[in-house]
Amino acid sequence: MRSIAIDGPAGAGKSSIAKEISKKTGFVYVDTGAMFRALGLYFIKKGIKLEDETAVARLLDDIDIKVVYKDEEQRIMLSGEDVTGHLRSEEAAGAASSLSVYSAVREKLLCVQRDIAKQYNVVMDGRDIGTKVLPDADVKIYLTAGIKERAKRRFFELVQKGEKPDIKKIERDMQDRDYRDMHRKNSPLAKAEDAYEIDTTDMTIKEVVEKILDIAALTG
Ligand code: C5P
After folding, report:
1. ipTM
2. What CA–CA distance (Å, rounded) separates 34 from 130?
3. How many domains does the chain fold into?
4. pTM for the full model?
5. Which residues form the Cytidylate kinase domain (predicted)?
6. Which of 14, 97, 106, 144 should be mutated for ligand 1, with most atoms under 8 A from CB?
7. What is the residue range of 119's domain?
8. Quick one: average pLDDT of 18-36?
């Protein structure tokens, strides 16, 4: 099976770009952030404090998480319930980031992620795909962009959904989340040694996609 790993901080354009690459290559787009978000919302719903690692670990074994691919879309099923529609909120993002420091959580999702990559050709995005989940990925990309540009992108994404976001708060939350993701002990966000770094600040999605497809052809 073939794989393209895309890592980088929040708002660098990973998911938009991975989706386009998926369309052009036929590889399945695997959004690993959605898996952390789904677990985050699950624990909030259960009234578990996300800082309570013991309580989180205790409940983790009972969670039946299945990731399925239908009509080119990823659906996340928790105990048979499709939770995909609830995952894009900032609440889910914060909860995902809090949970993602725990090794038990990461191990559970690591198995799910590697299983998918055994079954399909994938373009998988996240924080530790090139460094940990798929260390032998055929192509590794590390996407970055300036914080102001990343906050602006998230701001417009929320505006399009009819929300009235505060751009300063988005910027602060993103910086906090990036700091946590880069400084945690377990699988921190980092560029793999053999990853190509692309700064997308002044690039269109199309330009980034073309660049990655060029790299994939070079290394393929
Ligand atoms: O990519 P997304 O913004 O949906 O990810 C939400 C959070 O999930 C990230 O901030 C990070 O804490 C966590 N995450 C992770 N490892 C991944 C994907 C996401 O730790 N592979």
Report:
1. 0.98
2. 17
3. 1
4. 0.95
5. 4-216
6. 97
7. 3-219
8. 97
